[in-house]
Design goal:
Strand content: 15-25%
Shape: globular
CATH superfamily of the largest domain: Metal-dependent hydrolases
Bound molecules: N-(aminocarbonyl)-beta-alanine, zinc ion
Largest sheet: 9 strands, mixed
Radius of gyration: 21 Å
CATH class of the largest domain: Alpha Beta
């Protein structure tokens, strides 16, 4: 045996029990009490939780965006993921115009494979489906990438008609479409209005993309998914109206899924009034307290399916481009190392159960996006394992993170409990504050939706 983790409190989405886990050839091979097995390495996890590694299905690594490139490349991003207990990272590979879908994956995989410290998968960010390109979706599904994302905003948004066609095709080929939902026309109109009035502070980033701008787009996207019967996944849901629409669609039996991010659960739009408000600029913006509460309630009801980070950090000097004009601030914040510890802190404080956090951060992402080998601690699954000390307090600072960014919106937040070890397919990649993994270890995960 390669690894034996003994006496830990094992958590799955449905159960918690004390047992040993045996790992061989990168897989979990046995789970049971008092396993008497010879092993090259034995770890005593008494008094600790043993959890499946988190799966972050929303990251933007080395992403060209906002006039620059996001600050974490594939090496830094996956290193930070490992140090926060995340053992699989999904990145958005943005299509170039005229580019067939499988070429998008191969182009980004050539950059990611030599650097990745944990396993990874891609969603394709679709820009162009003209002519035969739409049928290249089928090739991507067969290649192991059955998930596509559309943006209703930004200069790489697609038209409503193309979005609708993608929904139809995704149903035919058993794929899932994710959407960044905001009303582009209204955003542009409000941006113009505020700039013309000299209203240039980060608060006007929020004011030009308030609750209804996101909620209205959620409603439209859901309406089209219902009409086609396609699977729709709403990324970074941040507003109450959208939450209500997701709840209704689920009650009606439609395959509509929703993700939210830790920053929408922790902060409110008040952050845009802070002196460092530009550092919190992301889209959709962080909303008011009513929306924050609605997100927490939806998590507890089961209407939010996943938590992911939307990790897209920029350097302070780049965020500073917008000191006198909020439209010049590159959109995005850091979170890849903070998601699992943040959510586990909520479990440790009794706000959610540990099982619920495992479901949101690992089991549901694996199920929704077709990672058969991941998402749970069970015999036959990849040995992606986190050992969590519920008694270790940890204060987040930029210095004790493992990214390449130079500031974090999470600065100074203290978490009760923290991961102490992360294993990626049985290999120790994080040990008590230190990255001990290897660049190039991470594997491309081919997926199939059930
Ligand atoms: O502000 C954000 N979220 N930046 C990354 C791109 C996106 O919209 O997901
Ligand atoms: Zn987005
Ligand atoms: Zn994103």
């Amino acid at each position: 045996m390669d690894l034996l983790i003994k006496n830990g409190k094992i958590v799955t989405a449905s159960e918690t029990f004390i047992a040993d886990i045996a790992v061989n050839n990168e897989k979990i091979v046995q789970i049971g009490q008092n396993l008497e097995i010879e092993s090259k390495k034995v770890v005593d996890a008494s008094g600790k939780y043993v959890l499946p590694g988190a799966i972050d299905v929303h990251t933007h690594l080395a992403m060209p965006f906002g006039g620059t490139v996001s600050a974490d490349g594939y090496g830094a991003g996956t290193r930070a993921a490992a140090c926060g207990g995340t053992t699989t990272v999904f990145d958005f590979a943005l299509q170039d115009f005229n580019e067939p879908m499988v070429d998008v994956i191969k182009r980004r995989d050539a950059l990611c494979a030599p650097e990745a410290a944990v396993d990874y998968a891609f969603h394709i960010g679709v820009k162009d489906i003209h002519g035969d390109l739409i049928d290249s979706i089928k090739d991507a599904v067969e290649y192991g990438v059955p998930s596509f994302k559309v943006f209703m905003v930004y200069d790489f948004r697609i038209s409503d008609g193309d979005f609708y066609q993608l929904l139809e095709k995704s149903k035919e080929y058993n794929a899932i479409i994710s959407v960044h939902a905001e009303n582009n026309e209204i955003v542009n109109t409000l941006v113009k209005k505020y700039l013309s009035e000299g209203k240039v502070s980060p608060w006007y980033h929020y004011m030009s993309r308030p609750e209804f701008v996101e909620g209205e787009a959620d409603l439209r996207a859901i309406q089209w998914a219902k009409a086609t019967g396609a699977k729709l996944y709403i990324v970074h849901l941040a507003n109450k109206q959208g939450v209500e629409a997701v709840t209704k669609a689920k009650e009606e039996g439609y395959p509509i899924y929703a993700e939210t991010c830790p920053h929408y659960l922790e902060f409110t739009n008040e952050v845009y009034k802070r002196e460092d408000g530009r550092n919190f600029v992301c889209s959709p913006p962080i909303k008011g307290e009513e929306s924050r509460q609605a997100l927490w309630e939806a998590i507890k009801r089961g209407d939010i399916d996943t938590i992911a980070t939307d990790h897209c950090p920029f350097l302070q000097s780049e965020k500073d481009w917008g000191i006198n004009d909020f439209t010049k601030i590159p959109n995005g914040c850091a979170g890849i190392e903070n998601m699992y510890p943040y959510m586990l802190d909520k479990a440790n404080r009794g706000i959610l159960s540990f099982n619920k956090v495992v479901e949101l951060c690992s089991t549901n992402p694996a199920k929704i996006f077709g990672c058969q080998e991941k998402g749970s601690l069970a015999v036959g699954k990849d040995a992606d394992i986190v050992i969590y000390d519920p008694n270790k307090d940890f204060t987040i600072t930029c210095e004790n993170m493992h990214s390449d960014y130079d500031h974090t919106i999470w600065e100074g937040i203290t978490l009760h409990g923290y991961p102490v070890q992360t294993y990626s397919r049985g290999k120790l990649v994080y040990d008590n504050g230190k990255f001990v993994g290897e660049y190039g270890w991470g594997k491309f995960i081919k997926r199939k939706l059930t």
